[in-house]
Retrotransposon Copia-like N-terminal domain-containing protein (Opuntia streptacantha), 175 residues
Amino acid sequence: EVESYNNDPLYLQGLDHPGAQIVSLKLTGPNFQKWSRSVKIALRRKGKLGFIDGSCAKPAPNSLKFEQWIKCDSMVVSWLLNSMLPELSEAFLYVNSTQELWDELTERFGESNGPLLYHLEKEIAELYHGGDSVAVYYTKLKKLWDEMTDMLDVSVCTCPKTCPSVKKNQELDQR
């Protein structure tokens, strides 16, 4: 019975409160990719990822779950605002939902991947083994690859070669 509550995205645990810091990294703007990855991991752990991706949809106002959804959504908004620099969080105080906040943050900080992608590609190309051990060198390289993969949102797909995802991945492979 307790397990079913823990899997419900509308369930709030005793330690869940509006002032909680769910990630240690504060959003500064330029670090959006790393910050968003950290936030997604934390929200997935808490069963609240659906509030940013829309999969935990707002129930109808006459639904029994409506008030609980509002409470949970407000809690997630609080967590996100607490994980930003104060001057950034003030700009987003008046959003109406977690998904609206996430969409605005993504639009403002996540869409200009071109320069960041170029910077990562340059870092990878210029990464020098130097005096580092193979393990340290590989760890640095893997971190950069993972950042680039996350930024590109490379998806694995088994559909026909005409699929937009397949075409996008083929274009990326040609780089």
